[in-house]
Each structure stands twice: as structure tokens, then as C-alpha cells.
Amino acid sequence: MEKKNKVTVKINGQDYPIAGAEPKDYLLKVGSFVDEQMDEVAKHNNKLSTSMIAVLTSINIADQFLKLQAHVDTVKREHTDPLNELEELKDQYTFVARELEEKKEGLQFLQNQVEELISYKERLEAERIDLEEKLISKEEDLSKAETIINDLQNKLFENQIKLVQLRKDLEEYVNTTEVTSKIKSHKHK
Hints:
Layout: E1 5-11, E2 14-20, H1 24-44, H2 50-119, H3 125-188
Antiparallel strand pairs: 1-2
Helix pairs in contact: 1-2, 2-3
């Protein structure tokens, strides 16, 4: 069973025990935050009862939470664009890799033809020259395809690094939000 930490915090002049799995420093920080929020509400209207101050403070904190949650949703949506771009790059990479394989097969075929033509050199000299020009063209195409693949691999790697960082940032943010939610649920218990 998870160990519960217990602290006593002063909120709006009264002591309240708080228990949770989080470290004591964190629990004290939560209590201090609530106290500061209640003090802020009380400063603006000294005629409010303690329960009214507590309700208005809860509304303010809920407003902050919902705005942060909306921001998280926006950030999540913004992270789908790089993921979609990554998928497009993967598709392009697959297409180019397929083209490269076809080019390699074509190159191999031409190389075989060149070897056959060498044995018929005297009779087929004009045809051999034509095939050599085609071979050079294919090698240039292959070189261009390899350059494109290298560029796509670099972009894929960069996007994977970005994705890992974005996931890490999102996990940290979600973990922070979950801790806040746990604290609120512990408070209500």
C-alpha cells in the first residue's frame, strides 16, 4: 500500500490536515496556493463569509484548471501536425526506396546488357554506345534518388527527435495535471 504523507496547513486562518502520496513539501505548496487564492478573494470583498470565499476560490481555481486543460488540448492538436508530417515523410521514403530498388534492378539489367554487348563489340558498337549513355543517365537518377533518400532520412530522424521531445514535454505536463487532479480529489475526500 502506498505511504501517505500528512501535513497541517493554515488556510484562511484555520488549520487543515492534508494527506497524500505526494511529498510533504508539495502538499504544503498546495495548501499555501489555496490559502493565497482565498486571501486574494477575501481582499476584494471583506463582507464575504468563509464559505463564500471558499466557493469563489474554487471557481477561480476551476477556471485556471479549465484554461490549462484547454491549453493542453491545443498543444495536443499542435503535436498531431508533426506526426502527420512524419507519416507523409515515411510514405515518401517508402516510395523513393521502391523507386530506388526499381532503378537498381534497371541498372543491373543494363549492366548485364553491356556485358553481352562487349562480346559483340565489333558488330554492335553503335548499340553499345547508346546503352552506355542510358547507363550514365540511370546512374545519375540513382544518385539523385540516393540524395533524396538521405535528405528524407535526415528529416525523419529530426522529426523523430522532435516527436520524442514533444512526447516528453506532454508527459511532463500531463503528469503535472494528474498530480493537481489527485490533490483536488484528496482534498474533497
